[in-house]
Amino acid sequence: MKATRIVAELTADEITRLLALELNATCGFVRVTYVAKHSIAPGGLPTPFAEGRPLGSALYFLVTPEAPVRLLRIRNDQVYHYYLGDPLEVFLLRPDGATEHIVVGPDIRAGQRVQLFIPGNTFHTARLLGSARWFLGASTEWPGVVPADVEIGNTEELAKSYPTLAPEMRAIAASVKVVTKPGAALR
User: Fold this and answer.
1) Fewer CB within 10 Å, N- or C-terminus of the chain?
2) Residues 48 and 120: beta-carbon distance below 8 Å
3) Which pLDDT tens digit goes with each residue over 73-89?
4) Mean of per-residue pLDDT scores for the chain
């Protein structure tokens, strides 16, 4: 099949170039593709969004073995979308102390999901599965995300609160080889 061959031949560097993705502090390589022109007015949403937000936002993200999804949380609800490449193993650390392990990828027969809802304020991290070359996906968020909505998690502090996922959190944190400059934007 021609489409399968094309995907098999793509490299992370080529995808980064073709989609104009840039290294991001939270999730590999990113390009914001949409921020709603209309906003929710200040006072139209409860805290922490009381100062107003765009109605929604979306971005592409590319994860590689050296640039996983770092431990983070976003105040906003979001949905991960699978597009191409290897499956993404996602670990959710819910505010109530529960954890969840989900695989976002193409093999829906094996229980993988092509979309994953991540509730606002849920810490999460993710790494590649499979041949571990790359994962291309997207995230859509509502209300739209601004930099103040994004928080990098402290791996050791969260490992104490979520001990069953501590080994995975530490392994993913240790796998980060491609990093942004200090002070780089989180969005």
Assistant:
1) N
2) no
3) 999 999 999 999 999 99
4) 92
In a 10 Å sphere around its CB, with 0-12 CB exposed, 13-18 middle and 19+ buried, how is residue 159 labelled?
A: buried
CATH code of the domain made up of 2-174: 2.60.120.10
Residue 48 preceded by cis peptide, ω within 30: yes
Buried residues in 77-99 as b, exposed as e (16+ CB within 10 A): ebebbbeebbbbbbbbbeeeeee
User: CA-based Rg of the chain, rounded to a whole angstrom?
Assistant: 16
Taking the C-alpha atoms of residue 40 and residue 14, their distance in angstroms, rounded to an integer, is 37
Token pair 């840039």 in the structure block, residue: 22
The model's confidence at residue 5, banded by pLDDT at 50, 70 and 90, is confident
Q: Using one digit for the tens of pLDDT, what is the confidence trace for 105-163?
A: 999 999 999 999 999 999 999 999 988 799 999 999 999 999 999 999 999 999 999 99
**In 3-state terms, what secondary structure has residue 62?**
strand
> Whole-prediction pTM value?
0.91
Q: Is the peptide bond before 163 cis (omega within 30 degrees of 0)?
A: no
Long-range contacts of 38-44 (CB under 8 A, 24+ apart): 39/144, 40/143
How far the first Cα of the chain sits from its last, in Å, is: 37
